[in-house]
Amino acid sequence: MARSITEYTQLEYEAARTGTVPHTHTLHDMAREQYLNDLKLGWYQVTIIFFLFSVIGLMLEETWIRISMGIAQSRAGLIWGPLSPVYGTGAVLLTSVSLSVRRRGGTPGQLFLASMLVGGLLEQVTGWGMETFMGAVSWDYIAGGIPGAVTKWVAMPFLIAWGLMGLVWGTVIMPEVLFHIGEPSSGMRVVVTAVLGAFLVADITVTLTCFGRVIGRDAHIAPTNALEQWVDDNYGDEFFFRRFGNMEIEGIREDAFERAS
After folding, report:
1. Distance between CA atoms of 214 and 223, rounded to whole angstroms?
2. Which of 247, 245, 244, 240 is nearest to 216 (CA)?
3. Is 14 within a domain?
């Protein structure tokens, strides 16, 4: 089991006291590298990384849409909170890949290629799954005329972007992020992170139920349980499509706004 962050700061102190620090490394670097070598990625780190980068990724995407297209559009991926789970999942996967490449002594080129593969698979599985199981389309690189489109959901420019993000993440950002997240070394950390995790599970559950009820209402299927009834009472079609500004579900979007007008 990885030691707590305070034990690694103690390493820094002992190194300074004994004068055993190599000239090419700082005390902080030594403690961080030792921590990453010992770390077993668990629920605590995964929950925090998923949450942080679901928020950061969404903010960056909406900023890009505003700058490049001149419009303000909600790109949220969940019903509650400024969260996009694709970015959170991507950050968790890139973290796992980066740690694996690091421990195997991999090169930056290998990290770049592994990140490309992980990002492409994430986009392909997510896009295919949404269209296959929910009839939903959030992006289509072929219809959008994106150069280098491999499938509807995978295109070379974005594969390269995934590779670059993974390279920067794994070599510059991730080591510091994980070192500062540390371990659940106190009861307060455990409780706060567990509550955050429970919120995320509830958010994902309600969001998936909302997707199902949009399709169900269009097919005139009545709710079958208390959660579906609660969703119908609180999150109708108009709310759903305003929340998910770029979402299309087999023509239901237009019907939703016609019924609301």
Report:
1. 11
2. 240
3. no
Examine residue 149 and state whether it is found in any structural domain, yes or no: yes
Q: How many CA atoms lie within 13 A of 143 on its CB side?
A: 6
In a domain, 5, yes or no: no
- The answer to whether position 15 is within a domain reads no
Non-local CB neighbours of 44 within 8 Å, separated by 6+ positions: 181, 183, 184, 189, 190, 193
Number of compact structural domains in the chain: 1
Q: Which of 104, 107, 102, 140 is nearest to 124 (CA)?
A: 140
3 state DSSP class of 236: coil
Sign, CA torsion 65/68/69/71: positive
> Model-level pTM?
0.80
pLDDT, one tens digit per residue, over 60-111 is: 888 877 887 777 777 888 999 999 998 999 999 999 999 999 888 899 999 9
Host domain of residue 100: 39-260
**Unique residue bearing structure tokens 């707590």:** 4
